[in-house]
Every structure is written in C-alpha cells, then in structure tokens.
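Repro:
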Amino acid sequence: MKRKIIILFLLILPILFETKVLAEKPKISFYTTDRLSPHVTLIGDQMTGIIGDFIKESLNEVATIQIKVFPWPRAQKEVQQEKNAMIAPMGRTIERENKYKWLTKVFDDPVCVFTVKPNKAMNSIEDIKSLNKIGFTLGVGYLYKAKENGFSDKIITNYESQENAKQLSEGVINAWFSGTLVTKNQWKAQKLDVNLLQCGKVIINQQISIAASLNSDSQFVAKVSDAMEKYKNTPKFKKLLEKYSVTYTPFLKNE
C-alpha cells in the first residue's frame, strides 16, 4: 500500500509542478523615470499615471511588472541591456524608430513652445526664433524638431520638467518647449493658473508609446503588444483617456 502511494505521488508530482509553472506569470522589467509625471507617477513602490495605469491594467493577467526607475536618459540606455524589457513614456519619433521594437501607442500629446499670458503666443517659427531662452527637459524625444526648425541654440536644458515650470513662471526662460500633458501638470504643481499658459503653434503631435528593447524576441513583442491592443478596445481605456484629458488616434508612421 505504501509503495502504491509513493508511485502515485511520483506520477502526480510532475503535473503539480507543471500547473505551478503555468500559473506563474512571467516577470517583465519596465524602465521609466519619475521626472515626467503624470505619464508615470510613483508613490512608494506603487505606480500610477496614465502610462503606469495603462501598463498595470493591460498586462494584469499577462505578466508581473518589475519597475526600474532611472533618470530618463539613463533609462533609455539601460533598457537596451536587457532582453524582453519595456520602456515608457516614449515619444515615437523618426530618430527613435529603428532603436526600439514598438509595442503600442497610448495617446497623443501636442508639443508646443509654451509662453505665459500676456506675452505673445508662438504662432510661427519666426516667433520662436525671436526668443532668447527656451526651456527643454533632458532626454525627451523631440529635440530634433528644434534643430530642424533652427532654434536649438535657444534651448536651456533642465534635468526636471518641474524646473522648467518654475523658470517659466519666474521669467528665467521666455518659453518652454514641451508636451501638453507634462506642462499643464507641472504648472498646476507650482500652484499656478493653467489658463495663463498658451500653446500657439503645435510643433509636433507626439505619439506617446511603449517600446521594447531592440533585442527583444518577436514572441515577447507579439504577446505584450496583443494584450495592450485588446485593452485599448475596452471601456477602461476610454475612461483612462478621459481621466487625463488626452486623446488617442491610431499610430501614424514617422509623425
């Protein structure tokens, strides 16, 4: 009898082990920064913000997310050292297109050269060229537009977006070259009236996306991308966009 029990246990053990393995969700490293709220907002070891919420909700049944926080330029380097890892928020630009494998687009973020009323709105490239100092956050993806339009020599680079908000409110810089979501959020964080901000000419419609490291395998990219795209067809995604007052349109190549 005892021998039968042992044999039965040995037969069942592989099944139990396989079931446990199947039940465990794979771990995915997510590289990000805490300098671009409300894209990603970190409270202790908890992640929120529009990108943070999107990743948690879309991948909840697919993977366990391991958050790795770095200064933004370093995060973009570190993610490439790890296979099958993610990074966001990434503005999908021409310069970045071939440096990553792209998982999904999350929302549209108009990039402007913001000024404060009653100062002049920047409605043309010539208006922008008339400025002396334009704030810019280190590591964001649209600097090439400043070079392309001939005003990169006006740029004052700051490590944190909140420093740009502070300097703009104090007149240290004449304008702030930034995405709309971060600009308004950081302006409010300074307890300033968001109605004083003016966008003027939209320089680029930044397509905020989630990317994978370049050496990620096709199976990983397909699985994660599929889960994210399915989530975008749910009412939860619509509510997420409404919560952060942003819009979504399908990806346009080389925007």
